[in-house]
Write a structure and sequence with these properties.
This protein is an alpha+beta fold. Among the domains are: 147 residues, Butyryl-CoA Dehydrogenase, subunit A, domain 3 (Up-down Bundle); 158 residues, Butyryl-CoA Dehydrogenase, subunit A, domain 3 (Up-down Bundle), CATH 1.20.140.10. 54% of the residues lie in helices and 10% in strands. It contains 23 helices and ten strands. It has a four-stranded mixed beta sheet. It has a four-stranded antiparallel beta sheet with strand order 2-3-7-6, covered by helices on one side. Strands 9-10 form a two-stranded antiparallel sheet. Helix 17 crosses helix 21. The chain is globular and about 70 Å long. 46% of the residues are buried.
Length: 640
Amino acid sequence: MTASTDRPKVSEREARQVAEAAREQGWRKPSFAKELFLGRFRLDLIHPHPVPADEDVRRGEAFLAELRAFCETEVDPARIEREARIPDETIEGLKRLGALGMKIDPQYGGLGLTQVHYNKALALVGSVSPAIGALLSAHQSIGVPQPVKTFGTQEQKERYLPRCARTDISAFLLTEPDVGSDPARLATSAVPDGDDYVLDGVKLWTTNGVVADLLVVMARVPASEGHKGGITAFVVEAGSEGITVENRNAFMGLRGIENGVTRFHQVRVPADQRIGPEGAGLKIALTTLNTGRLSLPAMCVGAGKWCLKIAREWSAVREQWGRPVALHEAVGAKISYIAATTFALEAVLDLSSQMADENRNDIRIEAALAKLYGSEAAWRMADELVQIRGGRGFETAESLAARGERAVPAEQLLRDLRINRIFEGSTEIMHLLIAREAVDAHLSVAGDLIDPDTSLTDKAKAGAKAGGFYARWLPKLVAGPGQLPNSYGEFGDLATHLRYVERAARKLARSTFYAMSRWQGRMETKQGFLGRIVDIGAELFAMSAACVRAEHLRATGPHGREAHQLADAFCRQARIRVDELFARLWTNTDDNDRKVVRAVLDGAYTWLEEGVIDPSGEGPWIADATPGPSKRENVHRRIP
């Protein structure tokens, strides 16, 4: 059977319906972040800080020691940057260590590490080479192991997990040349043919795809008799006939990443390699990302720690006007930001990871906030480090070494971190995704009221339901513990910040309710407003995590006093940002910006573009992805 070459034509409404159907609809477990957006500061869900089991810590720390020794003696990050490739022997060494199977259960040959220690491992290896961090993360956070572990059959687990734990590299293939965050337009097809499916299509930005042995591929199954159809997940052998890796992509950063373009032409995939039922592909992808997204903030934490180390060492020896630059307020403020933000980001990561390990809470919002907040904060920290280093921050490590100075790759870090604001959901998409979850309670009770397609009878029923909910909910937003001077007293000097979080959470909920009342069905178009709502929630979550972690360290570790200082500094900085975001909810340029954008697209300002020369090359904006046999050399590279 031959797949259709027509790309699916979908309306905006149909695209939203596909995305909505892929969401996990219910909330069977509590969520601290969900409650926060509803104006309920459920400190009991995160305090006392959850802790891992002693055996998990012992096993995790033992592996971290091995990984550190390997990274210090067998990884040459300068070579990876210079050659734009992770050497085969380095990947083989990672396999011998068991690094491919960090999250895979020991019964399948893996190490069985917790999410906490898996993230610590990614932070460690990512600080040496972000490209290696990307290789390991793409393999087991979103590659074959996680979806097979969660949704695969027992036979699939026994077939694939031992391979992924020790020998085989996996990749995740969703994006297409003309399909990014809008999967409703997915064009790669999987047509049933007897006991097989026949795959046709092109996948773009296939991280690990150039060297992968196994692929998770998302493809559209056409509905037919006996087949529900829909976007479906498959495990595919990368060496199958009809698969061609047509290009190894190159980027401004992560020069060692094995990311490419993969074409499928009449690729036969047995039905027993389908993960889950037909039509469940997007739900599988989103569920996988619920914890998979924590890998990115893990590497951002590692970047923050390195930025702090270099800023401290450099600023102590570099003198200007008679004293170290760190003692000049303009530089000192940057160092304070890096130190405080690194502490808070690690607090967010450890808290979210431990909650994922305990599986008592629904962390879909927490993980998304960690990814959003971590990627934005790490980029700013790296930018501040470059500024602190001055001209040396802009100079490459190779050039610094050539003229006799320490080879500090600050500019490389800036390039490597930039993709994290796009990877696994851009900042803009994360804003919308989190906002949708944040208003889920409102849509559950009042969604039919603002849906133009809902009948008057259903609107009346929804009105009665919403009236009961808001009659109980709204009065609770008027006053709370944040207004009592003795609340959260066990946190000492940090109590004032937790009282602020409680008050701000209620204000955030009131603002969201007012906006929904004002804009109703048009709320989803107010992306500027929704982005600020989410950013406020992210800051409040980070403040909460920082305070809880500081108090945990005070009670259990040797650095309690210093942790309280860092948490206090972070909260003071965050409160200024939150106050500014609240002000910008209602005082902004959103309406005027929309007018300017329309004028730009209409060509009203083309005169402003005169006086420059466009150095771009020729070619289409989006490459042709018409199904068919490949006309290019296969650049797939199997690691020996």
